[in-house]
């Protein structure tokens, strides 16, 4: 974002930024694009909640096509109030009924603690309203996320909720059994 009042001509960048690259790619995409003629309701009636990790290509990894699903992503793929907000709209307004939760190996949240929040407060003088949602045991975090979806009073459909860990080195999903107890050796 520029803060200057310079005329637009002076603001033209000399070197292309990453965003310029994306905009150029979009022009190529749009030149081959044809209107799929869909409405906003996902064809497969599924919402996928996943980590924002750059190594997880949800559409490729799950064989999804344009229009198939809702994708809701954040750091960790954790079920926050805002994810519940999106799922509620997804189910009540746009008719999805299955929920798939995907965490992954090597998640950045495994190296953080709630101390991150404290350090942030010390640095900027304000405590964030949100939890970091850091975790040590990815399987247990998937179970907790499944539980948060299943117990939400706002959702219409909580019978088809499944959770997985995506292995970023093999590309494979491993399903998490919601009834398994947390492993005894977890930190
Ligand atoms: Zn992650």
TrEMBL record:
Signal peptide residue numbers:
none
Any one Gene Ontology MF annotation carried by this entry is: zinc ion binding
Keyword Metal-binding present in the record's keywords: the answer is: yes
InterPro entries, sorted: Carbonic_anhydrase (IPR001765), Carbonic_anhydrase_sf (IPR036874)
Q: What is its EC number?
A: 4.2.1.1
Residues bound to Zn(2+): 51, 53, 104, 107
Q: Which UniProt keywords apply?
A: Metal-binding, Zinc
Record keywords: Membrane included? Answer: no
**A Pfam family in this protein?**
Pro_CA
**So what does this thing catalyse?**
hydrogencarbonate + H(+) = CO2 + H2O
> What remark does the entry make about the cofactor?
Binds 1 zinc ion per subunit.
Which cofactors does the annotated protein need, by name? Zn(2+)
Q: Which family does it belong to?
A: Belongs to the beta-class carbonic anhydrase family.
Its biological purpose is as follows:
Catalyzes the reversible hydration of carbon dioxide to form bicarbonate.
Q: State the name under which the record lists this protein.
A: carbonic anhydrase
